[in-house]
Amino acid sequence: MKRLDGKVAIVTGGASGMGRATALRFMEEGARVVVGDLNTENGAAFLAEAAARGRAADAAFLRCDVATEADNAALVAEAARRFGRLDIAYLNAGVGGAFGPIAETSVEDWDYTFAVLVRSVFLGMKHASLAMKRGGAGGAILVTASIAGMVGGGGSHAYSAAKAATISLIENVAAELGPHRIRVVGIAPGVISTPLLHRGKPERYEEQFGRQPWPDRGAPEHIADVATFLCSDDARFITGETVKVDGGLLAQGVALWGTGPAATFLRSAGVNRGTTGQPMTVRHLDPKG
Fold it and tell me: Would you name the residues annotated as active-site residues?
């Protein structure tokens, strides 16, 4: 028997990177999956890959803006409509968000970052938990956090603060939903080679990969391995926990993007919109301040 036989899952941000690898792994383990993503081209590529693996009947895609309540509700409803239930919600959608010195961060870029990284998790938890309660069989809500939310030096101030908020949500909502047999767990990736990180140029991040003690480069499949375990009955007594998947990076301490005035996030400012298909904006700053 496969780990996720008979389960129905939604995966936000599931058309690329860690989400895509996990959605495909969930299907290999017997689950039926609805992927929600803002990027429809990537969504079509996911469906084509599922079909190539002989799992077309077990895969669906819905364009989804995770920062809006209506789209979160629609994604959960689509899982129930197409596959009859919801057992797993992997709230993975993310962007790099606002970066740059705090004095150079606009309110709009800050709000965008928190909308995609925090409001989306709140909305996903809200609507997934409602569906799981109606189903009466419990379930698992998994969230992509980050080691940046656990320590300074792992990301920009906006991204790090947003990921810290998701870790707090995981702990608090786990306590609330435990009596309903709904587990809430998180994954905190380190440096993972995904389009969100490298934007098509992975060679630019060799320095960050080289900082971790473990010699292998972080890959989306490493996240998929842990996600599958956490959403399976093998992890049935784990809730309120966020698991680091970082090759030991946090164990030795991080300064991933440099220190002092030369730090990456102090040399420019703007907002990274990830793999949404929307453009990134960058303003290069005068190093003399």
Answer: 159
